[in-house]
């Protein structure tokens, strides 16, 4: 899509907010303003999240007038599926087009314990991690809560065809969730609500690259949401090379905020640690990592990185991955190695969108 076409789409895009952005009380307040009975909110939420309709006209137990008012005030279908890839292991990757022409990615991963969906919170990203395809092109804009919710709804609609269900959600797609904190928090409340998508708090995980003020704020929310931190390095020098955010939010200060979170909530933290060949994957790095985090309530998720053509990092050999994990275990650190999925499709976060953007400019 060229710039002129994108500008045209942005002009044509509806200014109505996504109905998926509304929490129950907000929907109820809107109904009362329109002279409707508050009980209608339950009917509307049922159409949205249980029956997953694609048109307000399909909400047949609502009056024609109310359906018209909903259509005039809100957008329902905000995502268009541009590409849908399915891996041999069942992983599904979606490239969705927003109403303003921008594209985002969403991934469905199949596990023994159920179907997990990884959602995106921003169009692009400003954090600038040197290993990530999501940062290519920078940050374009934040997503509305409803645009994040719609990702889950769209994937669930795809699963409806095989009578499957989204059982867990991870907020680890394109963008930094804590850089879009308010919309991210609203999204969490909507998908967790029993009249919404009814996904249990302990089946939801949010990840941050380390925006320290928001970690303190998130701790004070006292939610039962799982919390993960993209660490990727055992010391300040390596982390600053991999993650420029470390220059603004220093590693020692990050660790203090994580300790605050653990003390405040009583919940453990997961450290995401991507292994990059020859950079952070040696035994001495594992020993240093154990020294950094071994005293706190945590778990380490080792991630064999997917190759991104635009980046120069190489994969860590399997025997080195196992050695790294064993070194942590020997030091008393709880660790798992993430099972690799979607290897035969554009698996790395932001990779499918980056490829689509390259195609646009050819």
Automatic annotation (TrEMBL):
The active site is at residues 105, 349. One of its GO terms (biological process) is methylation. It is an enzyme of class 2 (transferase). Its cofactor is [4Fe-4S] cluster. Binds 1 [4Fe-4S] cluster. The cluster is coordinated with 3 cysteines and an exchangeable S-adenosyl-L-methionine. It catalyses: adenosine(37) in tRNA + 2 reduced [2Fe-2S]-[ferredoxin] + 2 S-adenosyl-L-methionine = 2-methyladenosine(37) in tRNA + 5'-deoxyadenosine + L-methionine + 2 oxidized [2Fe-2S]-[ferredoxin] + S-adenosyl-L-homocysteine; adenosine(2503) in 23S rRNA + 2 reduced [2Fe-2S]-[ferredoxin] + 2 S-adenosyl-L-methionine = 2-methyladenosine(2503) in 23S rRNA + 5'-deoxyadenosine + L-methionine + 2 oxidized [2Fe-2S]-[ferredoxin] + S-adenosyl-L-homocysteine. Its EC number is 2.1.1.192. It comes from the Bacteria. One of its GO terms (molecular function) is methyltransferase activity. S-adenosyl-L-methionine binds at residues 175-176, 207, 230-232, 306. Specifically methylates position 2 of adenine 2503 in 23S rRNA and position 2 of adenine 37 in tRNAs. Reaction proceeds by a ping-pong mechanism involving intermediate methylation of a conserved cysteine residue. Belongs to the radical SAM superfamily. RlmN family. This is Probable dual-specificity RNA methyltransferase RlmN. The lineage of its organism: Bacteria, Bacillati, Bacillota, Bacilli, Bacillales.
């Amino acid at each position: 899509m060229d710039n002129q076409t994108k500008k045209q789409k942005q002009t044509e895009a509806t200014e109505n907010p996504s109905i998926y952005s509304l929490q129950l009380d907000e929907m109820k307040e809107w109904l009362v303003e329109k002279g409707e009975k508050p009980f209608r909110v339950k009917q509307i939420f049922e159409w949205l999240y249980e029956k997953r309709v694609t048109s307000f006209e399909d909400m047949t137990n609502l009056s024609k007038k109310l359906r018209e008012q909903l259509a005039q005030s809100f957008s329902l279908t905000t995502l268009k599926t541009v590409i849908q890839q399915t891996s041999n292991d069942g992983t599904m990757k979606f490239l969705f087009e927003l109403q303003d022409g921008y594209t985002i990615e969403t991934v469905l991963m199949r596990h023994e314990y159920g179907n997990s969906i990884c959602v995106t919170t921003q169009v692009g990203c400003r954090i600038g991690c040197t290993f990530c395809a999501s940062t290519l092109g920078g940050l374009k804009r934040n997503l509305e809560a409803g645009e994040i919710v719609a990702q889950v709804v769209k994937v669930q609609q795809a699963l409806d065809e095989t009578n499957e269900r989204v059982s867990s959600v991870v907020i680890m797609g394109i963008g930094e969730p804590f850089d879009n904190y308010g919309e991210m928090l609203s999204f969490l409340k909507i998908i967790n609500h029993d009249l919404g998508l009814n996904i249990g708090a302990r089946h939801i995980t949010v990840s941050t690259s380390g925006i320290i003020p928001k970690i303190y704020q998130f701790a004070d929310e006292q939610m039962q949401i799982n919390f993960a931190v993209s660490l990727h390095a055992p010391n300040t020098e390596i982390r600053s090379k991999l993650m420029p955010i470390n220059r603004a939010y220093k590693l020692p200060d990050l660790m203090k905020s994580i300790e605050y979170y653990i003390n405040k909530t009583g919940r453990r933290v997961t450290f995401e640690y991507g292994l990059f060949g020859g950079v952070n994957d040696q035994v001495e790095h594992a020993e240093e990592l154990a020294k950094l985090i071994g005293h706190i309530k945590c778990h380490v998720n080792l991630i064999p990185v997917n190759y991104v053509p635009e980046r120069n990092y190489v994969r860590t050999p399997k025997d080195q991955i196992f050695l790294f994990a064993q070194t942590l275990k020997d030091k008393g650190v709880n660790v798992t190695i993430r099972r690799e999925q979607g290897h035969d499709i554009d698996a790395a976060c932001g990779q499918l969108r980056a490829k689509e953007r390259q195609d646009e400019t050819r």
